[in-house]
Amino acid sequence: MPSTIAALATAPGRSGIGVIRISGERALPVARSLCRRREGFPPRMAVLSPWYDEAREVLDTGLVLYFPAPHSYTGEDVVELHGHGSPVMLRAVLNRLYALGCRPAQPGEFTRRAVLNGKMNLAQAEAVAACIDAATVRAGKQAQLHLAGAFGRKLESIMDHLTGHVAHLEACLDFSDDDLPELDIPGLRERLDRDVCDPIRRLVQSASFGMRLFDGASIAIIGAPNVGKSSLLNALSGIDRAIVSDLPGTTRDVLEVDFEIEGIPVRLADTAGLRETMDSIEREGIRRAKEAAETADVVVFVADATRPDTWPVPEEADMCLMNKADLSPDASWPEGFLSISARTGQGLDRFRSELAARIVDLDLSGEDLFVTSERHRFLLARALAELEQGMERLDGESLDLVAAHWRQAYDALAEILGFGDVESILDRIFSRFCIGK
Prior knowledge:
Helices cover 44% and strands 17% of the residues. The protein has 13 helices and twelve strands. A hairpin with a 2-residue loop joins β8 and β9 (264-270). α6 (150-174) runs antiparallel to α12 (399-417), α7 (185-215) packs antiparallel against α11 and α11 (374-392) packs antiparallel against α12. It is flat, with a radius of gyration of 29 Å.
């Protein structure tokens, strides 16, 4: 990493302020040349200065902040330029920096340098991207926990326990003739399960909900034509998105709306009415409706209180709503239906509460700290599999194989944090970062 890099750290487009970040051993000399300044910049103090092009004409005037190594984001000398958010002016400043010896940063290269310089572990680096991608406050708070190192500290605690168990096992193998305590197999199994396996199991279980905080939960609304599915979508989302008509078959495709429930992004899908039809386009819409129901986290079945022929509940339904309840006050429909009126709003608050509870209840781990990355989930599951395979061999004669399985489990956990050889996974992780991070 000998080169000095520069990139726009704020989002593309017009804004009040645009920030350019420079990192590397020539960051300070480049900034001095840009500002035509003989002296340096005081550390961590904002200095107002004009920025000049090669013809000594002012490109912009803004703040310059210098963060000397190692007390910077990347662990190198870092300079931030805070100027006006004109894309044309920012591009001109970047071109000037390139002429002065910088090169364009690659996606995620600032954070990559922070990892390689020991400023953060790999899990924290991934949390940087999660903070940027968070679509709800709850997701943002979870990303902040990871960024602050809570996830890493939990893993390190598990790894410390595992190290102790592996060390004791290998000591008994290597020095069996020495005066060592006899290996207590039942006690070892109990301690390993309590201190290592059980915490990993809970983290693996938390992944489904943790990733849902960022990917969102999917809800499919199904039912016969004209039962009020589109009206329900409009009422829940607060947007007049779906066309509402008395004509059956109005909805021909899956119509999706995004909103938020209990801090979780939700994608609500209105689907074509389920019925027999000769219309090829409507048949395709029905096929897509069934496909949406198969992949949704929650399937909401809607029936019409005035039409008993719409009441039979399909087996894929998770929640059942009886719409147009205001038009049928005798409530003669079967049990298990929640009565609503998408037109008047009757029962919608209760439905939202029950839907929120169902989405939140998808988390069965009991954890406050969730796994939010598929990479982390995969490696945790691999570690757990190695641990369990080792425990299956504890009653046998091949205790050296037990130790080998547990060392593999340790390596899987270490890979999450980026211990050891991280170059093989850095490219894959940082390729999805924005340039300025």
